[in-house]
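Handout, section B. The chain below has 119 residues.
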Amino acid sequence: MTKPSTDTPGVVVRPPLLYLATLLLAVTLHWFQPMPIFGNSFAIVIGLTMAFLGVAIAIWGARTMLAAGTNIDPKLPSTAIVTSGPFRLSRNPLYLALTFLYLVFHRPCRPATDETLGI
């Protein structure tokens, strides 16, 4: 029986869980102090565009990593350095995709803390 590999990046919390936790915090804050939601068509177009870009970049990045033969899961060791596809434009396009999707879901909630930060 082979011993499990100790060559891991040491990820404590998976990045999607960090985004989800902050989104849940924003929704909880919105529950206690509701803010108006954007209703104009321009904001809807921007949101849909960001959602499309987020999903497209995530799919493109995942396919590029699979084609290179490396692991997508950050808890597993990397078996190759990927420099093609979206990785030639961004160090980690999967996090960029998560950021786009986070902003799409977070922006309508507008928790009270946003106003104090000037966002």
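Note. The longest helix spans residues 41-68. Compare this with the example in section A.
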